[in-house]
Amino acid sequence: xxxxxxxxxxxxxxxxxxxxxxxxxxxxxxxxxxxxxxxxxxxxxxxxxxxxxxxxxxxxxxxxxxxxxxxxxxxxxxxxxxxxxxxxxxxxxxxxxxxxxxxxxxxxxxxxxxxxxxxxxxxxxxxxxxxxxxxxxxxxxxxxxxxxxxxxxxxxxxxxxxxxxxxxxxxxxxxxxxxxxxxxxxxxxxxxxxxxxxxxxxxxxxxxxxxxxxxxxxxxxxxxxxxxxxxxxxxxxxxxxxxxxxxxxxxxxxxxxxxxxxxxxxxxxxxxxxxxxxxxxxxxxxxxxxxxxxxxxxxxxxxxxxxxxxxxxxxxxxxxxxxxxxxxxxxxxxxxxxxxxxxxxxxxxxxxxxxxxxxxxxxxxxxxxxxxxxxxxxxxxxxxxxxxxxxxxxxxxxxxx
Length: 401
Hints:
Elements: E1 2-5, H1 21-30, E2 35-39, H2 48-53, E3 57-59, E4 67-69, E5 84-87, H3 99-107, E6 111-114, H4 130-149, H5 163-170, E7 179-183, H6 187-198, E8 202-203, H7 206-211, E9 218-222, H8 224-227, E10 228-230, H9 238-243, E11 248-250, H10 253-256, E12 261-264, H11 278-282, E13 290-293, E14 315-319, E15 324-326, E16 334-337, H12 347-361, H13 374-378, E17 381-382, E18 385-386, H14 394-397
Parallel strand pairs: 1-2, 1-4, 2-3, 4-5, 5-6, 7-9, 7-12, 8-9, 12-13, 13-16
Antiparallel strand pairs: 10-11, 14-15, 14-16, 17-18
């Protein structure tokens, strides 16, 4: 079987890659019967020469390969018919802006495997860039604090080489007596937690966070049942919340009233209560001044997230009284960081980590007859049609939704 690493063609350019040169060599060594090519690229974080040095053919023509690995959406005009493609298609939630892409994939008889659909039997994702979103998101949140208060000036994450350099910069700053709230239980939240721990910020219990006045910066790490409660007062478990979100209401305000900096690293499921609403943010007791919304659900559970921001302009202000966007340095603003492609700022680390997960969880399926059903579960299209698992997208493809 012939595999290829494709050049990223989406604009703005994304420097990440599914396999770094070293990980691609591990792939080749583990499965020596495979043939692997690398499409020539002048934007990839790893230079073409690095792949050549390890014996890989770098070419402008990868049309003889069967399986093509990319990161972001492939432009319709660049899609090669009758291939197997792996990339983030941003279609599984019926995103309107990519309907034509999915239509073209079907018309060109392409087998699409979206990175988001590569899951275990229980639905847990096997690969992703979430950890790196958390790492950069937390860093950017501190950067927003320094710039707004004019107390310190962290360099942009994209100008630094890796996580270690980000941590080195964070260790130089002083954020005294700041209460930091972190939500989530997945890779995003734990990526952010890595940064807080590296800064030696003390982790405290829910009770201490809410009730005690502390003389140092602290953080509190919340799971869903910390900031949601059943309407009937019962305390059951996380699965009850996941299965019956409509039975719950937000209990977030008890944290919002004592928090300075909120890092949103949670996954928000449809039907769950909003963490805080626009009305909540108007309360005199609402204390949050900085929000690093890594989850970035626009106009959703974090009321201050009016839109996604960009790597070039990562911050904006939200005035809770007018519910409108303002300059982030406005004295009445909640400062919002809501970049929706954070791992792009740490392309080397993100690519290394992604390749490690991909080699462990996906590549073996090509050589063991898909023993654990990884490819079968992930396949979205086949023979010009949606697979049964993704048949819910038919109305979307037909333009009826």
